[in-house]
Design brief:
The protein is built from four helices and eight strands; from the N terminus they run βααβββαβαβββ. By secondary structure, it is α/β, with parallel strands linked by helices. The protein folds into two domains: 93 residues, Double Stranded RNA Binding Domain (2-Layer Sandwich); 50 residues, SHC Adaptor Protein (2-Layer Sandwich). It has a four-stranded mixed sheet with strand order 1-2-3-4, with helices on one face. Strands 5-6-7-8 form a four-stranded mixed sheet, with helices on one face. Helix 1 runs parallel beside helix 3. The longest helix is centred in the middle third of the chain and has 32 residues. The protein starts with a strand and ends with a strand.
């Protein structure tokens, strides 16, 4: 595994680096057979009394991210790695469930998606609006995200409510 660590508002001490390495060692068992490079970015920051640890793991096409905060950076690191491990296990279970389901079902002749794989499929017209208006629309419908056509770029974008507060904007490359 390849690590990068950075910090803002705090000093990246050898103790913190060692704590991150020790916690991330727990993930080695999941990637022992991985032929691709596993890259892990760790970003630690302190905002007032909040010690926040963000970890992003990249392995092949898979990207997992966890962010946790507490009053102690060491606890934030441990919590973020726990969350990352749980998300990795869940993603592998979903992958195996889909694989088992595909093997159990006879191959379909058509190339259409199996709508039963989704709890709900919804078709909609993407409104051409500005991102600020998309946030207003999202708030009005009470959702955590909103898909729209950006009037500035004429591309499909997504605004979303961040767990840490505020909003995010997803723009495809």
């Amino acid at each position: 595994m390849f690590y990068t660590m950075s910090a803002k508002g705090t000093t990246l001490t050898e103790g913190l680096k060692d704590a991150v390495r020790a916690e991330l060692e727990r993930l080695n068992k999941y990637f022992a057979d991985t032929k691709g490079v596993v890259a892990i970015d760790v970003f630690m920051r302190v905002e007032k009394e909040r010690h926040i640890c963000e970890i992003t793991l990249r392995s092949g096409q898979e990207v997992l991210r966890a962010e946790r905060e507490s009053a102690d950076m060491y606890q934030s690191i441990a919590d973020a790695v726990d969350t990352l491990e749980q998300r990795y296990i869940r993603s592998k279970e979903r992958f195996l469930d889909r694989k088992r389901q595909a093997e159990a079902e006879p191959a379909a002749e058509s190339h259409e998606e199996n709508p039963s794989a989704f709890a709900r499929v919804k078709h909609f017209a993407a409104s051409t609006i500005e991102p600020e208006e998309a946030i207003s629309q999202m708030e009005m419908v009470g959702h955590d995200f909103f898909v729209f056509r950006n009037s500035w770029t004429d591309e499909i974008n997504v605004v979303y409510r961040r767990a840490a507060g505020g909003y995010g904007l997803l723009i495809p490359n």
